[in-house]
Amino acid sequence: MYSMFKTTEESQVTMTQLMLPSHSNFSGKIHGGFILSLMDQIAFACASRHSRNYCVTASVNKVDFLNPIEVGELVTLKASVNYTGKTSMVIGVRIESENIQTGEKKHCNSSYFTMVAKDKHGNNVQVPGIILDTKNKVRRYARSIARQEQAKNRSSEFRTSEFKMELYLDSLKDQNAKIELIDN
Fold first, then answer.
1. Is 68:33 a contact under the CB 8 Å cutoff?
2. What is the Cα–Cα distance from 45 to 4, expressed in whole angstroms?
3. Which GO biological process categories is it annotated with (predicted)?
């Protein structure tokens, strides 16, 4: 049985990049797609460092852009392993921007990437576990388990064969939608 464990510090990755005009969208803010690409890169680097294998992105959990990022700011991405399964890892990614003239820092985003380790043939491979040596690490690990359970429940609850429309009709009354069913 595979029983290697590593500290989260062994695989943490930090990346800082200057935001250029070529990274901006039509409103002059940094394009969300560019930030997502950076997030995927750092999640890959962290997961690969932890597993010592090539890793692929299996899913991304909730990406909320909390504050806009301006051209000319420094963006720092930090990634750490929050959870390890048998072949997968949840990588927590935090993004902060910094105005280089004022020193003001803003938390712009936190997200969770599920990454799967692969061998050179593309098969899933087992990953080392993580050592939970602080209360915060235990909290992050437990939160990842809870997030997985919520995702399973969401998936089954809204599966076409399982969906019970009558349970949701009241909650739709005050929404910007009009129900005009033509079939059942």
1. no
2. 20
3. acyl-CoA metabolic process
Note whether 51 and 125 are within 8 A (CB). yes
- In whole angstroms, give the CA distance from residue 166 to residue 1: 48
Beta bridge pairs of residue 117: 55
Rounded distance, CA 161 to CA 178, Å? 23
Q: Which residues contact 86 (CB under 8 A, 6 or more apart)?
A: 126, 127
Q: In what order do the strands lie in the sheet with 13-18?
A: 13-18, 74-84, 88-98, 105-118, 54-61
Walk me through the domains of the chain, giving residue ranges and CATH numbers: 5-131 (3.10.129.10)
